Amino acid sequence: MNLLKEVLKYQVYPAMGCTEPVSVALCAAYASKELGEETARAEFRLDAGTYKNGMGVRIPNTDGEKGNLLAGTMGILLAKPELNMEILGGANKKIVSQAKEMLQKRCINMEVAPDAHGFYIEAALTGISGKQSKCIIAGSHTEVVFLSQADTVKINHLPLENNDQKIHAFKAALKKASLKDLLDAADNADEEDLAYIKKGVEMNLKAAEMGQALQKVGFYIKELVRKKLLQMDLLASTKILTACAADARMDGQAVPVMSSGESGNQGVVTILVPWKVGKEMEVDEKTILKSIALSHLLNGYVKVFTGELAPICGCAIAAGVGAAAAIVYQQRGKCVPAVTLAINNIISDIGGMLCDGAKSGCALKVVSSTDAAIRSAYMAIHDYGITEVEGFVGKTAEETIQNLGSISSIGMSKVDPMIVDIMQEKCNH
Q: Which candidate in 34, 143, 178, 263 could, as Cys together with 149 as Cys, close a disulfide (CB 3.0–4.6 Å)?
């Protein structure tokens, strides 16, 4: 198995809008297309992480409207699952107006599925004739595990073992990989891989350019530079770049980005940090693109231990690990000790950052990740880093990441339900 190609195929793809509400829309579109008639009622059930991530983020092509519920309703009306994770790009004012009308009738409901572990979205529709359809996406943002219309079942990968999603073969291989394996996989990237990675760079640079026009996080970092509270150096310019890209996404701008680990903001950090640093340091482009391949691989590697939607911030920690390692690769090649130090440094620094859902504040976390990744890499390039004598850092990078995974999945198991409770309480008020 070529791990890089599998990761690029399943976890690195264009997405317009925050990937959780987009996936809700996609699930609804599959169910709606199967239904084949006007929807009279819809019931959505989501895992806590997906529910959390879609509550406060703006939806593309809606003039700033927010939420999973609106995205799901738009997906019902669009009924075009072939658009995949760019489905909301097909929306217009008429679709948004119709979706709002449906929501006002209170015929669309959404709840957390308490028995769902891992990524899970279920859309059950009832048509005006009483006909029913159902779609379940689980395990990843695009994987349909169940699809039915009336009594006809077209796809059935149920039951999901122990309420957990069946793991992709590549994820099982990724979980068993060593840091050396990932370095080798990135180093052996072929021209097809590199061309696809370059496409992601171009997409995310375009999103960053669009974000320049917004008076959000990127704008205020530029203001700090203008007022001479920060210097316009490599750190500042890279933070502005990534912040602006995240600003555009979280503002609901109709611009796709190349995701990483099935997350757009993770794609922003995973791709743009090593790209900007490499260009500023005059690293040859092929090496930069290979370093981004490593960034994608490590982002995915962290997430097989922490979970698809973890209580900890993926765009900061998982993507930051990838970006830091990529910068070291640009300067030191496949040096396992140096890359290990970079990974240990960034996890020791921001490893406890919480995820409280997708929203404008994600750009702040992207900035923190960008800053931490560059600092962590610089120290590691010069052979300085946190070792196993400190905290939960392990003897190897793999052990450190596994420890982080245990803290996230076991030690913080009550965090997501608590955050969802807080968010729901705010909505009720």
A: 34
